[in-house]
Amino acid sequence: MKKSRLFGWICCILVGFMALSLSACSRTKNAAGGSGKLKVGLTTFTLEVTWQSQNIGNLETYVKTKYSDKMTLDVFNANSKVADQVTHIENMINDGYDIILIDATNPTGLNAALKKARAAGIVVVNYNSEVADPDAFDTKFYADNVEWGSVLAKELCTALNGNGKVVCMNGFSGVKLSSDRWDGAQAVFKQYPGIEVLAVDNAEWAQAPAEALMTSWITAFPKIDGVWSQGGASTLGAMNVLLNNDMPLIPMTGEDFNGFLKVWNAHINDKGFSTYATGVDTRIGCLALEAALRIHEGTTLDKIYKLDLPVINNDNLKDFVRADKADDYWTMNILRVKDIEKIWPDMK
Questions:
Q1: 348: helix, coil or strand?
Q2: CB atoms < 10 A from the CB of 256, how many?
Q3: Which of 286, 284, 288, 166 is closest to 230 using CA atoms?
Q4: What is the pLDDT of residues 137-171, one digit of tens each?
Q5: Three-state DSSP class for 44?
Q6: What is the dihedral of CA 195, 199, 203, 208, to 10 degrees?
Q7: What's residue 338's pLDDT?
Q8: pLDDT value at residue 339
Q9: Cys bridge to 111: 33, 133, 233, 311, which one at CB 3.0-4.6 A?
Q10: Taking a C-beta distance cutoff of 8 angstroms, is the pair 227, 263 a contact?
């Protein structure tokens, strides 16, 4: 009887170990997609912005040319919905992904799902639009968007000699990247009592919504002295409306959207016109992937990396504008961050 009971316990233990082993094998198989390859998933808050399309296109080409035998890459679009991005993350956990790259819809709404991913052994790298909780990612690459908005606002106020009526174009409502830029701009405008903000609205970093806004604003306001825009396509939209209505260009801000840079270059000597831009290199997704691979291989990286914000002005515009590229091409080719050689040794 005792031998029989002991034999039963031994059988139970062996069955348990076999189950665990099978589970581990299944997990390894899932993580490799059944082919020995790493499974990489990218979830982004939108694909409607051409910057994002170029960033992801760069990443897909990079994976295809350098890592096609090592990994697969899947891209998921949350369409600015937090719930959809949470679903993406949960699905990637269940499907045994090894790496999650995330451009966040919201700074706090993804925390629980991302922590669950990390607890499952998935490497999580946040880039561009930020996740706030440092426990929700392994490392993060971002530009200081409060600084972004502040720098552009200071340049606009300087161009207007501290006096004038301005209209302002933000990105998507509810996206931290956009609200941070506007926070930075507002803080500067408050320092200039001679600056009057006539209107603020969301142009969604796109040309068509900006054209609609600018058309309504030139009708509503007899005088507009400047345009603060946080997106290059938005700035192009504002410029087009002025030019199409035979109105002079006025001081504006923007980013490295080639169509905007082309029109800027064509009117660089126009009286009363000045502009200033910055931007983030669309290879940032490739940088995020390289960081994720280093972490997956056991390299320790810093928790947070802040990217530089290069300046585009009249003096160096020629270095960024690309006559050989389409209007919706993003021209920034400067990707500077601490220890980039350690993260991406062969970056060109």
A1: coil
A2: 25
A3: 166
A4: 999 999 999 999 999 999 999 999 999 999 999 99
A5: strand
A6: -110
A7: 85
A8: 85
A9: 133
A10: no
Instruction: Return the amino acid letter for 12.
Output: C
Three-state SS at 25? helix
Q: How far is CA 258 from the centre of its chain?
A: 18
Q: Which residues contact 13 (CB under 8 A, 6 or more apart)?
A: none
Neighbour tally for 79: CB within 10 Å? 12
Q: Which residues have C-beta within 8 Å of that of residue 90, sequence separation ≥ 6?
A: 113, 116
Residue among 279, 247, 240 at smallest CA distance from 262:
240
Looking up tokens 């959207």, which residue turns up?
Answer: 257
Question: How many Å apart are CA 309 and CA 144, to the nearest integer?
Answer: 8
Give the chain's mean pLDDT.
90
Angle at which helices 82-94 and 111-119 cross, to 10°:
10
Place of tokens 């002991």: 6
Burial class (CB in 10 A: 0-12, 13-18, 19+), 60: middle
Task: Give the SS3 label for residue 81.
Answer: coil
Helix (H, G, I), strand (E, B) or coil at 276: strand
Q: Residue 109 corresponds to which tokens in the numbers above?
A: 């709404």
- Cα–Cα dist 186/246, whole Å: 30
Max CA-CA distance within the chain?
Answer: 102
What distance in Å separates the CA atoms of residue 34 and residue 30, rounded to the nearest whole number? Answer: 6
pLDDT score of 34: 56
The Cα 69–Cα 60 span in angstroms is 14
Neighbour count for residue 199 (Cβ, 10 Å): 15
Buried b (16+ CB within 10 A) or exposed e, 264-290: beeeeeeeebbbbbbbbbbbbbbbbbb
Q: DSSP of 96-164, one letter per residue?
A: T-SEEEEE-S-SSTTHHHHHHHHHTT-EEEEESSPP--GGG-SEEEEE-HHHHHHHHHHHHHHHTTT-E
Amino acid at 50: T
The pTM score is 0.86
d(Cα 321, Cα 262) in Å, to the nearest integer? Answer: 6
Q: Which residues pair with 201 in a beta bridge?
A: 169
Strand-pair category, 226-229 with 195-202: unpaired
